[in-house]
Amino acid sequence: MIKIQSVNIARVEMRQIQGRPVPTAIGKRPVAGPVAVLPLGLAGDEQADLSVHGGLSKAVYAYPLLHYAFWQTVRAQAQVAAQGEALAFGVLGENLTVDGLDESKLWIGDRLRLPGCTLAVSEPRQPCFKFNAAMGFNQASKLMAQSGYCGAYLGVLHPGTVQAGDEVELIPGPREVNLRELFMARMKRRSA
């Protein structure tokens, strides 16, 4: 069973990153109850750099709960968190923390039907320096690139609402381009 574990939003704020003030909304926080899903994203959520986040094809960002244990472990190894210290939902910048689904099971064009809306898998997330800051160490983006733990950007096919506890039905798309494989190919090109 696929289920929404948490719905997370944030407003753009200025944070010190690499010694300079940077606008960011990566630090999403869980919200209770139904949240409106609009064509450009969740009500109350913002993106700081619309050239790389947001828009119709990247309106919502979903991240697998499965990968939280990995990030908890590497943060402890990097000595930026205590061993076993839980990560707060939304800290990876995701709007939806999803249980029961990961990148290897997602294909571009797959649809996620929820009780109150329908979303479509559009592309993998590209990590950036803001992700390093959110994780607390400078190798986080590199680890995302190596692991393939990127999460999925989603377009909104049918606006409505979403809330924690919603069950998700995965409706297969054309099954031509796997999300994780696309991400790994992009990361290989980027490092070349």
Helical amount:
10-25%
Helix and strand sequence: EEEEEEEHEEEHHEEEH
Percent of sequence in beta strands = 25-35%
Number of domains: 1
User: Which term fits the overall shape?
Assistant: globular
Strand order of the main beta sheet, please? Answer: 1-8-7-11-10-9-13
According to CATH, the homologous superfamily is PK beta-barrel domain-like
CATH topology call: M1 Pyruvate Kinase, Domain 3
List the helices and strands and how they pair.
Blueprint (H helix, E strand, L loop, with lengths): L1 E8 L3 E5 L2 E5 L4 E2 L4 E4 L2 E2 L17 E5 L3 H10 L18 E4 L11 E3 L4 E7 L4 H7 L4 H8 L4 E7 L1 E3 L4 E5 L7 H13 L1
Parallel strand pairs: 7-8
Antiparallel strand pairs: 1-4, 1-8, 1-13, 2-3, 5-6, 5-12, 7-11, 9-10, 9-13, 10-11
List descriptors.
192 residues, alpha+beta, 7-stranded mixed beta barrel, 4 helices
Could you please describe the fold and organization of this structure?
With 192 residues, the protein is of the alpha+beta class. It has a single domain (2-191), classed as M1 Pyruvate Kinase, Domain 3 (Beta Barrel). Helix content is 20%, strand content 31%. The chain contains four helices and 13 strands. It has helices spanning 68-77, 129-135, 140-147, 179-191, and strands spanning 2-9, 13-17, 20-24, 29-30, 35-38, 41-42, 60-64, 96-99, 111-113, 118-124, 152-158, 160-162, 167-171. A seven-stranded mixed β-barrel has the order 1-8-7-11-10-9-13. A hairpin with a 2-residue loop joins strand 2 and strand 3. The longest helix has 13 residues, at 179-191. The radius of gyration is 16 Å and the shape is globular. The model has no long low-confidence stretch (mean pLDDT 95).
